[in-house]
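Recap from last week: sequence in, structure out.
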Amino acid sequence: MTQLIDLGKLRFHFAGDWASSTVYESNDVVKYGGNVYVYTYALKVAGTLPTDTSHWSLMVEGFKFQGVFDTATAYRIGDGIAHGGKIYVCILDSTNQTPPNATYWSQFVDGIQYEGAYSAVGVYQKNDVVVYGGSTYIALQDTTANLPTVTAYWDKFIEGVSPKSIYNAATVYVPNDLVAYGPNIYRAKVDTTGNVPSLTAFWEIYISGTVFQGVWSSATAYYLNDIVSYGSNTYRSKTTQSNVLPTVTSEWELLTTGFSYQGIWSSATSYLIGQVIKYGGSLFQAISDNDNVNPTVTTTWTKLVPGYDTKGDWVTATEYGIDEVVVYGGNTYISLLPHASTVFSTDLAANKWLKFNSGIKWRGAWTTATEYLPDDVITDGVNTWISNSAFTSGSSISADVLEPNTGFKWSRFASGASGVPTITSAVDGQFLSNNGSSSVWADAVPTNVTVTSSTNILNNNRYLCDTTAGGFTLTLPIAPSENDTIYIIDISGTSANSNITIDRNSSQILGEDEDLLLDVAYISIALLYTTTNKWRII
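Predicted structure tokens:
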């Protein structure tokens, strides 16, 4: 049998929010939590909760949002709260029952909750999102005082960086913080305080850069990739360091090689690697730092540009440098090593000079008491003569050429044409000519013979002796003729150590029954034989 309900007889009374002190009767309607309930019990009572189905029936299931969950708030069925980025609906009246708790709460909306920068005293719930360093992290569970880098409680949500300006040892840095340190940008790998960015356990290079710091200074602290100039070069710092010379390869690397001209070398100046100076006739470059090291020392300097520097006439008591060129007599000589000049022949014998160019020097008419040098050319009457050594002229050309013990000082360079000389005497290649003013011996052209070992010597030969390999003996003719003339010259300049012995071969030399020993470097003599005086030096 069908039951008919007369809706016109239904009467509902909305009584507002449920209150425990109110007496409710049939058909009273109240709000409780997010729901609406109707009173169905026959008797009027107070204090019975709307969730008690013996007295109440759910009329409208609803939702009442109560904001962020609070442990001190009493929640009712149907109340909604936000907790850790999610929305929960209360399914059982409760107080201090923290979601998620399936007995009291049902998850309504899944989401995240942005909580700003991480705080060590913050109370975080699952799905809360915080910023820590340059990244954002999401909580995996409720947590307090656990850093976002602790993977049991947090997961990295967004990878990022956080610029923090110039590094400061007193600042607390967290992962992905960026700092400027020297010319580079570094990223913190872990939490760190007081650990400089060059320590790879705490930092890594994020962006490499360079900064030119000018001339290197021992008082300056340098960082990785700082660039300095030192000497004529530039260097890049490989580490963080101070007061380490750029030439130390463990701390620096050569970036560019340059050229820095410092003028003429001075013993009072300290030079740096790569700097260039002029010394003598050449340019030298320092291959290491040095102080008062002569440029000829090859372990410290290298000759960059060979050259020469003309210094005019040679002067005694003068400081000469390597590759400087002087004029001495008719020739030029180049200095082989730095030295203070003494006597030219002595310096030449000591290998301080090398003949640079051979030549002659015109000195005009011969004069007495004049200092002549090798290859000086003079005139005497209609003839010209060339000097064979350095000496001061005597009373006449004849005296220089013929007088005993004076040495072979002049050779005829050219014969003049003021009349044909009258030959008054001729013996074995020499003749005594009368040119109208004086009588001089004029030699026929002798034959040059190079000698390196002991030999027998003959008339009218010029023996060019080389004793580099050792001394030797020259033996005079056993039966010389009147006016025999023999020339002996030390062309190697070594006879001072490796002597030349003249074996008299039974004839006297300089009136003595003894052999003649030549022990002067570059010595040049002529021996003339006469029946009266035997062998004499002319």
